[in-house]
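Before relying on records like the one below, remember that each one covers exactly one chain. Contacts with other chains, cofactors or solvent are not represented anywhere in the record.
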Amino acid sequence: MYVIRRSKRSKSKEASRHASITYKQISNQFKDASKIQDIAGIGFAPNFLSIPIDLPELSSINKPSAFSVNGSEVINYMHFSLALNKVKRFAFWVGWNVDGGNIKKLSRKDIPFILDPGIPKEFQVGDELYERNRLDRGHIARRADLLWGELSEATKANKDSFFFTNITPQMDDFNQSIKGGLWGRLEDAVFEDTNVENLRVSLFGGPVFRENDREYKGIKLPREYWKAIAFVEDQKLKAKAFLLTQNLDQLKALDLDEFRVFQVALTEIESRCGLKFAAVLKAADSMAKHLRQVPSKRRPLESLEEIDWS
């Protein structure tokens, strides 16, 4: 686990000290700082696309609940970063980059789910939640999305994806169904249905925390999840947001409702989660202009073909 400041402050002396060990490992080969950052592959890369995108920011209400080190709530791993809610003990958000033209195929065999040793145990949820029940450990940043770059990078990303900070609990049948359903294929769909520049995509995702989430073993289990996909097509930045929920109208969400995938506006994710996305990302979201219906009147996506990628 690495904790450094956001990229726009990365040139400061303090941020450089946080990352000095990692940079020293490769600085003998690369003198240019930008090349070192690219080769190191530490965390979400804001400049991954031809149009830069900053990480989300937490609202003033959420900030006190965020785990932080040296004033930064951003926790970096190989090819992904996240902000951890130390009260809920799950991530507020996870941001990751996908280099679709450089994917590696690596096995997950014998890789354990583990607590991040750099974060106090009391701020994480480990195996104790998943013992002797039907709960699955569900990745927020897909393992397969992170396996790119040099083999050493992909291998580390493979292992890093199994830190519990990147995991949320899901019922076993629910977890397996979303993997093969629309939710689990959103990343694949963007490559199949659009002309993604350089086959590069940046994503954000996480749970939606609600006061009425079920409590189990002293942990409130999220029942909604969100995901945002950013890419460049024809030199234009595009952003698409999705919500996996039982019902877009929160007051009508019943335990027996089937989970559905809705295409939503980024501003809706902001209001539900207490986040603030980069202005350039929200400007790239065409759904904000199209979605005029109240939530309860909208229809869920029935197929990937119904996604508006414009």
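The chain has one domain: 2-306.
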